Each structure stands twice: as structure tokens, then as C-alpha cells.
Please model this.
Amino acid sequence: MDCIFCKIVAGQIPSDVLYTDDKVVAFRDISPMAPVHLLIIPQHHIASLTDLTEAQMSLVGHMAYVANQLAKQQGISEKGYRVVINCGRQGGQVVQHLHMHLLGGRELSGMLG
Ligand code: 5GP
Ligand code: ZN
Model:
């Protein structure tokens, strides 16, 4: 499958990985929109939140908890941060592999900042 994030999970494309476990991988976004901009993705390919099945729903909770932990590790937890999942074309999803953005380290104004 020609999925850039699956290639990152497989180590076929280099990335700055900060965290990995049996379910997810977290790495730095290649074009960061904030001083801290990480992506948390499932190891297993799921194209979008739209494709999440009932059996997979705990995965998103796991991703959110990893975001919580990484926010602490990155020192943005106290001041605050944003977690975003873009979904589908109008939602601004460009990479078709489910991912959670973790953004922080600056004032994020408005809906998207
Ligand atoms: P989306 O718009 O799909 O929610 O966000 C995709 C994100 O993936 C973008 O912020 C983009 O900068 C990031 N991205 C795309 N390709 C790569 C890559 O090869 N490596 C890394 N680290 N990030 C990527
Ligand atoms: Zn994939």
C-alpha cells in the first residue's frame, strides 16, 4: 500500500519518532505549525476517523492518552495545547491514514490558530 504514514511505521521513511508502543507511533510533523507539532497515528492502517469501527474505538482513547503524556513530556501541558483530527476532504485531511495532531508551545487563536 502506498501510504506515507504506513511507511513511517515500517521505518521505510525517516521521521523523528518520539514514542512508540504496540498500538501507536508518535513523531514530529515535517512542517510544524507550532513549536510542538506531533502526529500520533495507529500502527495499523485506518484511512480516516470515518473508517473507525466500533471494535477499534478504544484506539482513539489510547491516542488521546498518548497525547496527554507527550504534552507533559514536551512541557506544554500546563500552558495548554490542542489536539486535532482532520477528517475527509472538507475537514482538511491530506494524509489518508488516521492521525491526531498535538499542537502547542504558542498561543493558538481561533478555531484552528
Ligand atoms: P492532515 O492535513 O492530513 O491532517 O495532516 C497531515 C500532516 O502530515 C501535515 O501536517 C503534514 O505536514 C504531515 N506530513 C505529511 N507528510 C509527512 C512526512 O513524510 N513526514 C512527517 N513527519 N509529516 C508529514
Ligand atoms: Zn497507512
